[in-house]
Amino acid sequence: MRLSFLGAAGTVTGSKYLLQRAEHTILVDCGLFQGQSPIRQRNWQALPFQPSKLSTVVLTHAHLDHSGYLPLLVKNGFRGRVHCTASTAELLKVLLPDSGYLQEKDAEFANRHKYSKHSPAEPLYTERDARYALEFLSPVEFGAERLLGEDMRIIFERAGHKCPASGCGVSCCTACSAGVAALATFLSEPGPRADFRSAQTPLLHPTALSRQFRPPRIFL
C-alpha cells in the first residue's frame, strides 16, 4: 500500500491522506486549508489525481479542515461514496452548506470592494455544490466494519478529539489489508478507551502524543 500526504503537512489544516492499493484509491479526510492567504490559496491548486478516478472517501470527523474540501471534490468529478459516522453526517448537513454560503459571500465582498486579483472573484464552491455533495454520504455505525474492496475494510472507533458543536467523539478510521490487523490508523487524539496498539502505522496530530501512547512509527 502507498500512502501520500496531500495536506496537514507543513501546516495544520487541509488534511488529506491518499491510500493506494492495487486498483483502489482511497482518500482519508478531505479538508480545507485554512489560515493566512498563502495557506488558503492551496485550496485552488489541482490535486495530484483525478477526482473521477477516486474509489472512495473516508472522513474521520466533521471539522472543515478534515471535510470542507468535499464539495469541491464532487464538483470536480468525484462520484463515489463518502464513509463517515452518522454523527459526522449530521454535522456535515450544517457545516458544508454554511461553508459554501460563506464562500459565496466572500466572493461577493471581494467583487464589491475590488480587492481580489481575479475579476470577477469566484467562490471555491457554492452552497448548492455543498448540498449536492451531501448526497454521497454513507454513514457507518461505530464498531461496524465496511468493505472498501476485496481486501480492505474500515472500522470507526471513538477517539478523544471533540466536535464542539455537539460533543460528538471523532471517528477513528482504521484501514486494513488482508492478513494485517491494522495497517494504518488515522485519529486526532486517542480517547481513554481507544486501544490502537495493533496498528502498524498510526497517524496522529502531535498533540495526541502522550506517555501512555507511544506507537512504533509516527508520521507528522
Model description:
Helix content is 22%, strand content 28%. It has 5 helices and 11 strands. It has 220 residues and is of the alpha/beta class.
Q: Please identify which CATH superfamily we are dealing with.
A: Ribonuclease Z/Hydroxyacylglutathione hydrolase-like
Q: And the CATH topology?
A: Metallo-beta-lactamase, Chain A
* Name of the CATH architecture: 4-Layer Sandwich
Counting H and I runs of at least 4 residues, what is the number of helices? 5
Radius of gyration: 17 Å
| Main pleated-sheet profile | 6 strands, mixed
Spans of at least 5 consecutive residues with low confidence: 162-172, 176-183, 215-220
The chain-level structural class is alpha/beta
State the share of residues found in helices, binned by percent: 10-25%
How are the elements arranged and paired?
Layout: E1 2-5, E2 17-21, E3 24-28, H1 37-40, E4 56-58, H2 64-67, H3 70-75, E5 81-85, H4 86-113, H5 127-133, E6 137-140, E7 145-149, E8 152-163, E9 168-177, E10 184-187, E11 201-204
Parallel strand pairs: 3-4, 4-5, 5-6, 10-11
Antiparallel strand pairs: 1-2, 2-3, 7-8, 8-9, 9-10
Helix pairs in contact: 4-5
Brief digest:
This protein is 22% helix and 28% strand. It has a six-stranded mixed beta sheet. Strands 7-8-9-10-11 form a five-stranded mixed beta sheet, with no helix packed on it.
